[in-house]
Amino acid sequence: MGKKGVSKEMEAISGLFLSKEAALRDVGKGAGRGSNEGVEFEEVVSVRKKKTFPCNRGDRQAMQRELMALLEDGYVLTRAELRKTTDVLEPGKKLSRKEEVTLILKE
Fold first, then answer.
1. Torsion region of 102: left, alpha or beta (phi above 0 gives left; psi -120 to 50 gives alpha)
2. DSSP class of residue 93?
3. Spatial separation of the C-alpha atoms in residues 49 and 74, rounded to whole Å
4. CA–CA separation, 33 vs 31, rounded Å?
5. Sequence spans of domains, the chain
6. Helix (H) or strand (E) holding 101
7. Measured distance CA(24)–CA(15) in Å, rounded
8. φ, ψ for residue 92 (rounded to 5)?
9. Conformation bin of residue 27: beta by default, left when phi > 0, alpha when psi is -120 to 50
10. pTM of the model
11. Which of 22, 59, 85, 88 is 20 to 30 A from 5 (CA-CA)?
């Protein structure tokens, strides 16, 4: 007894999750739609990198150089978060001021 309708279509695309190459060749054939002509596939790859620098003056300059090198390589800066902490110590008084600035580029 052969499969019909949705069951047949599900069988045709189930390989997409298991075997990419074989599934891409077979998409549409099992569902009775003919060949893959006119079908377009889009592949999206996301890569996240995180680089940490120690908190000292020399490494802050290294971080600035790294940022400039990435911008020159074609990366686009879309968001930057900056923090500044100022501590004022006077006899009998301690003042700590924290400032945060977030820069966001709207597209």
1. beta
2. E
3. 15
4. 6
5. 57-104
6. strand 93-104
7. 8
8. 80, 5
9. beta
10. 0.43
11. 22
Per-residue pLDDT for the chain (107 aa), expressed as one digit of tens each? 555 555 666 666 665 555 555 555 655 555 445 556 778 888 888 888 888 877 777 777 888 888 899 889 988 888 888 888 888 888 888 888 899 998 888 76
Residue 74 is encoded by which pair of tokens?
Answer: 């074609």
Residue with tokens 């090198």: 69
- Listed residue (5, 25, 7) closest to 15, CA to CA: 25
* DSSP H or E run through 81: strand 79-90
- Residue 8 burial (CB count, 10 A): 13
For 23-55, b where at least 16 C-beta lie within 10 A, e where not — what string?
A: eeebbbebbeeeeeeeeeeeeeeeeeeeeeeee
Kindly state the tokens that stand for 94: 């301690």
